[in-house]
């Protein structure tokens, strides 16, 4: 169905707009698909190799560091990556979303759950770094809980209720705030609103937390006049890198979503709605870059992890004669390959 042929007669009472799943800019959506395929090809082996290290080398479940959180972050990113080939297939076929209701809802479920988990573990790790730097001597609940994998399980379980709006039957091609049958209007509006609340809160609240942590860690660095500043500078670099990645990946699609909702609620022309939808879909593709950037920012910001990674996968980049620092217990290891050049 084309853009100009989206009027459907409903129950003999009048006409209403029903948005179908067809992409009106097929060449552009094929470009979106190509970008997602590139992200998938680059990010899958990177995340898989990091996951392998966490399980078989670091034995993250025995560690008292952030390894448990980082393992779950990488796991969430890998699960999110498996959605990309399906979305790319839809885009190549000229569909914004799958026309199959089961596939459409399953994709929304996976995207909501795993992107939410990725953001949650990203935020929790930043909060932990904030307490370690700004309040190093203070006991906090997060420091006690991170020693147990149960906190990670709890985060996953808390995210599950947020996926409930994606399972509701009343939505057209996975789109919110579109006109529907009169008897379903109230229910549909409530469900659509819940879905949008989940979308915005899982991005905006963590972003506010990241800004707060970054500002306080930077202030802590400025006030520190004595002692070794190396660890503090690393913490500043880490949280600022996370904020940059977060801003680059998630804020643009959040703004685009706001614009799209405003255009729909104000019932502007279909041309405006279509342009807003195309822009939103493109910026959502940009948000999947998070799966590629997370390991680079959070795992490779650690010189210990970087040394271990290179000694296992790229031994030709390391120099003999020194010992890399890292193992399942956080102590030094004794392999034949050593520290990073």
TrEMBL record:
It is found in: Membrane. The keyword Membrane applies. InterPro entries: GPCR_Rhodpsn, GPCR_Rhodpsn_7TM, HCARs. The chain crosses the membrane at residues 31-56, 68-88, 108-131, 151-168, 197-215, 236-263. Its main location: membrane. Residues 46-298 form the G-protein coupled receptors family 1 profile domain. This is 12-(S)-hydroxy-5,8,10,14-eicosatetraenoic acid receptor. It comes from Stegastes partitus. The lineage of its organism: Eukaryota, Metazoa, Chordata, Craniata, Vertebrata.
